[in-house]
Structure formats: C-alpha cells, structure tokens
Design goal:
By secondary structure, this protein is mostly helical. The chain contains 6 helices and no strands.
Length: 147
C-alpha cells in the first residue's frame, strides 16, 4: 500500500462505506502478515458476518465472576494451541480459527468458554468484552396451553 499509488484505505473511508472498523480488523486477522490480502466489499462483509457470529456465540454464554485461575483440560489445550499459533510467526489466521472453535466447543463449560474467548481477545483486540449476554426468552402463556 502506498499513498502515492493511491491504494491506501483509510478508516474514515471504511466508515463512509458503512463497514465496521472492527470487521476490518477481523479481516486483517484472517490473513498472515506475510501474505497479500485482497480487500473487497465481499471480503469485508464476510469478515463482518464472521465477527458477528463470534459475538453471537459469546452473547449466548453467561457472565459469571471470573475468579477461577485454573483451566479445564480441554480449555487448557485450546489455550495452548492458541498461544502456539501466536508464537509461531504470529499465525493469526490459526489463532482466530481456534477462537471460533472455542466459542462453540461443547467440551468446555459455557462460563469457562466465555473466560477463554475473553482471554484470547486480549491478543486479538476485537473488543469482545463489550458483548453482553442475550436476555433469556420469556415463555408466553399461549405456549403452555393445550387444546
């Protein structure tokens, strides 16, 4: 990218086009820093969808007091894999895929999954700590009536 060539993409330009800046960050995380990244509206939209899916997965998880300092075996394995990817030449595409996998892992308790994703986000910087859990759905009287 070069300003003199005119292929610089400014954050203000993204905002003007209606793209969320964090979606652009997510897109950057999906490519290794040594590889070329082809920016397009489609790739940014795909990144925004993927990030929203991660947010939705996180919103499904309950907020609990994060007093635990020990990880379960499954969470520890994912955490080790995440850190191995980061320490292996900043392999962020692998790290982000591990984060997506962790968000949906049935082998890890929901509260620990939330803690794990927020731990990963300290490196990813997607501001996932701002995601609030979804409110439980209220049952209506109509759903309980029979015949």
């Amino acid at each position: 990218m070069s300003r003199s060539v005119g292929n610089v993409l400014l954050l203000s330009t993204l905002k003007e086009r209606g793209f969320e800046p964090m979606a652009y960050r997510y897109l950057m995380l999906t490519a290794h820093y040594r590889s070329k990244l082809s920016f397009s509206e489609e790739s940014t939209q795909a990144a925004e969808n993927a990030m929203n899916n991660l947010r939705n997965d996180l919103a499904e998880l309950p907020i609990t007091e994060m007093t635990a300092t020990v990880w379960s075996m499954e969470a520890s394995q994912m955490r080790d894999a995440f850190h191995e990817a980061i320490n292996n030449d900043m392999d962020l595409p692998v790290a982000i895929s591990i984060a997506r996998e962790a968000a949906r892992s049935a082998k890890i308790e929901p509260a620990e999954r939330r803690r794990l994703i927020l731990d990963f986000d300290r490196i990813l910087g997607l501001r996932l700590d701002t995601v609030t859990p979804k409110a439980p759905k209220a049952l209506s009287d109509e759903g309980t009536r029979c015949g």
